[in-house]
Queue: 4 jobs
Job 1
Amino acid sequence: MTDITKASRILADAFTQNILIDPLPDGANPTDFETAYEVQQATLALTGAKQTGWKLSVATRAAQAGLGLDGPLIGPLLDGRIIADGATITTNDVHFPNIEAEIAVVMASTPGANASAKAILDHIKSVHLAIEIADRRFTKKQGPVSTLADLNSTGYLVLGPEIADWRDMAFLNGPVETRSDDKVLAQNSDPAAWPDPFGGLAYLVRFLTKRGQHLKAGDVITTGACAPPTLTKHGRIEAIFEGVGTVRAEIKTA
């Protein structure tokens, strides 16, 4: 049985002290996703951080099938870590910045517990281009279960420009690429390889309902990588959604 108290204390200390840690020791390392969620929630409580939304990872059907999942993995977005288009953070703020072009949603109201992807559209305030700057507290990359326990690699979210006329879904059909200092990090020209943003939201609603939680007005949800996540060290980062727009930020050397 996993020692959730021990695991969450180690992870919370790493987060609040902004330090890197070795893999969780035997007995504290979760071995399944459900236990990892318990560790994640206990860790979040110990950090004292205020949650302002949710992040979805492993958000494509192919990636989920590879892990035997029926939906994405869920983690928190945190107050003070949702930053504006063009904002700057430093290399003191992140250890291993993993750059992901994403679609983010801001909620206007609470969907019903069994809301379909279509019904959820009426509860959305706005849809945005975004860059997730995922991060980890482990010295070495861990498997998906330990990663989930580590606040699902929550880091920063760059909330970019609103997508006009998002209900027509045309923004889902274009190529996307990420760059760092004009060097291409990742590309995706296959719309079938994108996550389903609104299907992911419907899954999140069901996931939260089972745990006595719900989405609320003002929550920000980022719905998964639209091109392969890529590590970078520092520099000017961009996510370019062809025909839709670009979102930018900078990771400055401290």
Job 2
Amino acid sequence: MQHPRADRGVSWARRDDYRSTAFTTPRTESSMHGEAVIAASPERVYAHLVDVSRWPDWLPEVRRAHAPNGIRLGAAFEIEMYGIRLEAVVPEYEPNTRFGWIGSSPNMSIYQAWDLVPFPPGTQVIARKVERELTTVMMGNSRVEELYYAHQDALLRLKKVAEAGGPSA
């Protein structure tokens, strides 16, 4: 499915929702996958992804992100997104190739990873995200499409900021 505001080079692969019965209280999970072709080098794109303190500049759902010891494999950082404070860790860190983080709070958890593949004249970005409980925490009376498109909006914003260069480049 194509995002209604998608620019050329951004596609949507899927979004899956399910309720797990493996818990005493059923939990909601959303799995998302999106792809973008960005006219910037993998190094430039990766620099934006790992500059977590600047995420609020291009990710509207992120209010604050702080990595006191920088971002590297195993690094811990704090992030506030959707109004919820998460403790996060970086289990995947392969410079210019792959970056992934896991964040959690008592009521929800998020896993997000980006794979970067050289794709002349730039980079193909493959983004995956799994959110547990976020759907029920955030949705309230909102339409499902709002979260459906939020992941792809992040790719569109990454595309815009990386192609513009900017301070992380």
Job 3
Amino acid sequence: MKMILPLTMLTLLLSTQALAQEQIALISVQGSGVVQAAPDRARLQMTVGSRQTSVSKAKTEVDAKIAQLTAMVQQLGVASSDINNAPLRIYPEYQQDQKAVEMYRVERELTVQVRDLSKYPALLEQAAALGITQLAPAELVVSEPAPLYQQALQLAYADAEQKAQQLARLSGRKIKQVHQIQEQGASPAPMHKMAMMASDTVQFGNNQVRAELSIQFELAKP
């Protein structure tokens, strides 16, 4: 036992020194990539409301307006599968003593997917003419974001690699290889909102498809 102990300690010491020599130097960097894309689809939420002394009267008025609105949207070429009617919402309004209902407000929301943005101005004008109670800002989206996101990923990688090479040069080293890649953030379905405006001033602008990467690069030995 007295001879084995020193040999064991020597083996551990040599193993520790070998591990220390095998440690690699790493550089961790963040890379960002952005691709601009024009939206080609809009999502509209329109609300029709009525305030009456009875629920049935308010519902009748709301249903009639929704039917008119649906017909108008379909005439503009929107498919029935892109039109969705939400359930009725009923809000009783009480008298000052809070003991009896004085009026009822009934609302129904209509959601429309507009796949042809050239129809968007006409839809806004006709919806306003029909007396829409509320029109939420349009959500403008890119219908096929996956290829754009792949481009953004490539840009993010190139950005991270450039940063790593610059840092390596400052330290007098060179990049050897990639050690680890982690996707930090993904935005393959960007969306922004646009308020209702006159038909001659509608501008859709661009959406941003963004990718974020965290990459560790291994440095070559000096």
Job 4
Amino acid sequence: MNVLLVDDEPLARDELAYLLQQNITVNTVFKAEGVKEALALLFAHHIDLVFLDISLNEENGFTLAKELHQLNTPPLVIFATAYDKYAVQAFDINAIDYVLKPFDQERINQALQKAKLALSTRLPQGPPSSPAPQKDNQFITLTNDERTVVIKTREILAATVENGELTIFTLDGKKYVSHETLVWLRSHLAAQHFIQVHRSAIVNIDNIRELQPWFNHTFILIMTNNQRIPVGRSYLKVLKTRLNM
């Protein structure tokens, strides 16, 4: 299985990653230090299981856990934390286990076995060589004031959120405003063509023209229509990987 571990403490991340890699059921371990980086990885890769800390700098692991339910196939969640007081709340959102720090191999193996059993009952059985096709919707629809607009997803250049409004920009220079969320839009787009680069922006990776340095060691994207979109620091690593940088 592919596992994502989310923890803002580098030593804790490395320790848990090591223990996970000792278990033969684990194929790949992805690591994130916060909610934004975790969401970027979840949209870019198929993740079966998330080991999630609760205290993430100024963020909260429950925020990410609730976002997962909006994905087409949400991963399983195991909370891995130093606090035992949130266990009831964790199971209220259907976490399959709750592992306390400091970690040890036996306890991690037990948690992984639970995940393996849960995945085997949830996913359809079939040969490993026949994975389910990736979702690639050809259209999305936006309804405002009793008017429904049909947009071809391959013609979406970028989308941004500001003041609670989602704006979608298309290759023909048009823009469409909606009260839908960025998470909703991302769930309808093919991950191989779109990437979240900021907490309030998604872009069509095929229409990125340049990645330029910006102020305070940040970066900005220049799209093929000359639109400029800032890149959030927590999204930069995944973006560079997608761009083979």
